[in-house]
Amino acid sequence: MARRRKGRPINGVILVDKPTGISSNDTLQKVKRIFFAQKAGHTGALDPLATGMLPICFGEATKFSQFLLDSDKRYRVIAKLGERTDTSDSDGEVVETRDVNVNREQLEACIDKFRGTTDQIPSMYSALKYKGRKLYEYAREGVEVPRESRKITVYSVDLLRFDNDEVEMELHVSKGTYIRTIVDDLGEMLGCGAHVIMLRRTGVSNFPYERMVTIEQLQAMLDDAKANEIEPGSVLDALLLSTDTAVQDLPEVNINAEIAVHVLNGNPVHADNVPEEGTLVRISVGSEREFIGVGTIDIKGMLAPKRVMANEHQQE
Hints:
single chain, four-stranded mixed β-sheet, 23% helix, 9 helices, eight-stranded mixed β-sheet, alpha+beta
């Protein structure tokens, strides 16, 4: 007999406004407890210093969280010029101090160099792994390990404010882009050094900014529901976005219920109006366009499922 997991079997995505000073995993655990959810996972960590949008997936939505890791992100950042730190942000130790002799024209010229596709070498203070260990674990031991550069794209970067030794910018970037590294590189270009003193993620994929909620708001809703003897889930669950919002940017392939049975069992099927080979697609069923999973188009032009929703029996 299968052991039942503690918590409610809820599905969906909540957009949490992560506070500064705690890790993304701490945020996840707090929110999971508030919702009393069986299963939860976040979609791309934010540094403890950072605030802003942290999508947390519950239940079946965790199957599709990887696709949010691959999505574009938007940030607002404030950099302090004249000081370089070992972590490239204000949580680290200052390792170098230099005079700031920068004018706006020089600053804008340097910022312009980040636009487009470039190579970036990840910071040692990142969660990327080397030989099974996270880079920041090596960094805390004072060990430097080789890191491969990777392609990133900065779709836009706008200078919002330049005030003495502070630079405020807004960026729209591809997956895997480290804003701390951009700020550190900018400081070196300017010849004065720089580090992040404020970082806020304002967007993930096309999720609406106004749907973000804080941990304090969630806790207050929970406390209020309990005080009024209301089932907390009936209040909290109204904040959830549907499971398929994690893959809302993928093209859709709609199939009928008969074909859907085969897809849910993991079998490739013939489908109408499929895109080109190799395309990742969102699979829906019938006129109601019920979401059942994600698949790819194989070399035979068939729809091959990759991740599919569990039926009610499987979720028990």
